[in-house]
Amino acid sequence: MEEKFDAIVVGAGPAGSACGYTLAKAGLNTLVVERGKFPGAKNMWGGAYYGPFLHELFPNFWEEAPVERYIKHRKFSFLTEDSALSVDFTTKKFDEPPYNGFSVLRAKFDRWLASKAEQAGAIVASGLQGDDLLWEGSKVSGIKAGGDDLPADVVVVCDGANSILAEKAGLRGDLSPKDMKQGVKEVIQLPREVIEQRFNLNGKEGIAWESLGTFTKGIPGGAFIYTNEDSLSIGVVVQLNALAEKNVKANDLLEEYKQHPEVASFLKDGKMVEYSAHLIPVSGKAMMPTLYGDGILVAGDAAAMTLATGLALEGANFAIASGAAAAETIIEAKKTGDFSKTTLSRYQTRLEQSFVLKDLETFKKAPHFLENPRLYEKYPEFVCDMAEKIFTNDGKPREKTMKLLKQAMDGRISFLQIIQDLWQIKRSI
Amino acid sequence: MSTMKIEDKLAVNKFDIDKDVHIQLKEEACKNCDVHSCLYVCPADCFKLGESDNITFAYEGCLECGSCRIVCDKDAIEWTLPRAGFGICYQYG
Ligand SMILES: Cc1cc2nc3c(=O)[nH]c(=O)nc-3n(C[C@H](O)[C@H](O)[C@H](O)COP(=O)(O)OP(=O)(O)OC[C@H]3O[C@@H](n4cnc5c(N)ncnc54)[C@H](O)[C@@H]3O)c2cc1C
Ligand code: SF4
Ligand code: SF4
Fold first, then answer.
1. Given the CA of residue B25, which atom of ligand 2 is nearest to it?
2. Counting CB atoms within 10 angstroms of each CB, which of A21, A61, A132, A137 has the fewest?
């Protein structure tokens, strides 16, 4: 290929496809390369897509996109070995367009999003890997892919959590296991009526259910279940360095979670149809690479733009918004033909003005707070024990709540620790 | 549901396994390693402890997550992506 592209986007995940779409729609000659056989073939997540940004890009996208169910219920549980304390939140608003979130399977969804880029005029080349960058002096001038040199004015790196190209561009150093969580997941098939009956759902209603508890053996992280149309996505997300330090496998934690009495009945007679794993960058701003250089921009997970507050994990909305912001920056730069670092630095300004860097700034202390081991061992035991004491009627005279509280805390956790933790919570989430 | 082994889980996945090996282990470096982090972080059990406490590696079930590359601090893993189009091919994701 001798053609020079205005822009080459590496990776057709949410960031890359949103970027390719926005560029092509503005008339730029755009190539998106994707190493999978099709967009989505390499991708897994929880997962549910939240927030209004996709609706701004594609109004009423849920009418055409392959979404599984809209999220009608957000449930959160503390689990100990044999008990569970849960909160289930729902509101009428979750029932109405533009909806609060949708459960999604990536193999279908990513293909759809990439098709939008294609329809807008981008070339989406699946089965093509960006192996390296092309350089003209200190400026990135394209990529090497499949043995060819592909020149472009600008390269947008959207190659996900492991971003090899951000590393090759010198925009970040080695990744640290402290900054990563590992997700492992199963997709379990069940007839849709069974799902609706077990989770008390009607029609397209769905549930997103996150849990913290003793099943992670003190390792920072938790578990999730998302209802799809006729399957469940079930998995755990756990701190990578802690797996190595404690000699624990994420899959064993997933198995333990699946066996929990509160969980097992929902999975009964289901058929496991896929097992997947992926990393998530979780330290937010603290691990963010340099976002731009001469002829190059970084978006999505490659730039560590995920929000992990403990109650939920969001990344796809940040990926899409940052991909689109990278595209807008390039469209503006194209007017003067100047793709230098100085011009491309406007990308950072755009992100600072959008929810992307605002949210990551707001929650920048959350990753630190989430390392607190008490959250994963002591608190689940403490709240479940407390609930058991309040709700059990064993015929003996009842105790006052404060006394029960003291008993539940006994030896496990001190008032001082609770106050310290509450202070940390207040400061971080 | 009874507990399932990782190899049985991998058996339901769709892979297009390349004849080229994309991850190579420098077994010499592993000889000086006493933590064997790769054994625990690999979600696909690609690393195994051999009879003489040596580490062996098989690339076929690799889910391309990158965990081993990030965790091994002895630079014992020459990690690359499989050739485009090969490797894991998620049908659900
Ligand atoms: C277990 C888990 C649960 C999650 N749950 C949620 C959730 O519920 N909600 C949410 O919003 N987010 C969730 N996330 C985060 C979300 O998945 C990511 O933030 C999002 O996918 C990032 O999009 P991206 O486009 O930046 O990267 P990716 O989705 O990783 O896409 C990168 C793309 O680049 C391709 N690629 C990589 N290297 C190359 C190369 N050299 N050449 C060509 N192509 C390449 C890959 O094949 C891939 O298609 C979860 C993540 C995990 C792992
Ligand atoms: S690959 Fe790394 S972590 Fe695993 S045994 Fe070898 S040196 Fe140790
Ligand atoms: S990349 Fe992931 S799945 Fe592949 S060998 Fe390394 S840890 Fe195992």
1. 1
2. A137
